[in-house]
């Protein structure tokens, strides 16, 4: 991937709905080579897809929660079981494997505190093998972006 490909990606991260003509102008290419580069980035998996950035509160999910989980055991079977179960839970938007005292951090969205309690009791606890759950509720967001920093 070269600097021009990164420029294309950053432009699409800012506005994934821009036309190829507008994209080509933004990155100083003619439309045909620009479209060819976009198609190559898609084919290689560098661009995995396109989506809408939706306001959670407007959608009906005003509460974002970061949940840190530590497992009791780290054998392959228990880890695979936990990860497979987490993949099937729709409230979990992201699950990251961490270094340090916590094994996983989940980003969860729910409609309210009752929904969060239900999530913990009926989605997380039944997984089993969990040593600890630590929860932080988001009460404000200072910065949220999907645009990667420039490497130039």
Automatic annotation (TrEMBL):
SMART domains: HTH_ASNC (SM00344)
Protein's GO biological process: regulation of DNA-templated transcription; response to amino acid
GO cellular component labels: cytosol
Gene3D superfamilies assigned: 3.30.70.920, Winged helix-like DNA-binding domain superfamily/Winged helix DNA-binding domain
Alphabetically ordered keywords of this record: DNA-binding, Transcription, Transcription regulation
Stored InterPro entries: ArsR-like_HTH, AsnC-type_HTH_dom, Dimeric_a/b-barrel, Tscrpt_reg_AsnC-like, Tscrpt_reg_AsnC/Lrp_C, Tscrpt_reg_HTH_AsnC-type_CS, WH-like_DNA-bd_sf, WH_DNA-bd_sf
Pfam families per the UniProt record, alphabetical: AsnC_trans_reg, HTH_24
GO molecular function per UniProt: sequence-specific DNA binding
UniProt superkingdom: Bacteria
Boundaries of every HTH asnC-type domain copy: 1-62
Record's protein name: AsnC family transcriptional regulator
């Amino acid at each position: 991937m070269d600097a021009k490909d990164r420029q294309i990606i950053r432009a699409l991260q800012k506005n994934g709905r821009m036309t190829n003509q507008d994209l080509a102008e933004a990155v100083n290419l003619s439309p045909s080579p620009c479209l060819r580069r976009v198609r190559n980035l898609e084919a290689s998996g560098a661009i995995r897809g396109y989506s809408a950035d939706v306001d959670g509160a407007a959608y009906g999910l005003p509460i974002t929660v970061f949940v840190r989980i530590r497992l009791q055991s780290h054998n392959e079977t228990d880890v695979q079981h936990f990860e497979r179960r987490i993949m099937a839970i729709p409230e979990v938007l992201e699950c990251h494997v961490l270094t340090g005292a916590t094994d996983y951090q989940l980003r969860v969205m729910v409609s309210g505190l009752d929904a969060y309690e239900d999530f913990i009791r009926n989605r997380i606890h039944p997984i089993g093998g969990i040593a600890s759950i630590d929860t932080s509720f988001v009460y404000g967001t200072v910065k949220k972006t999907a645009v990667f920093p420039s490497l130039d």
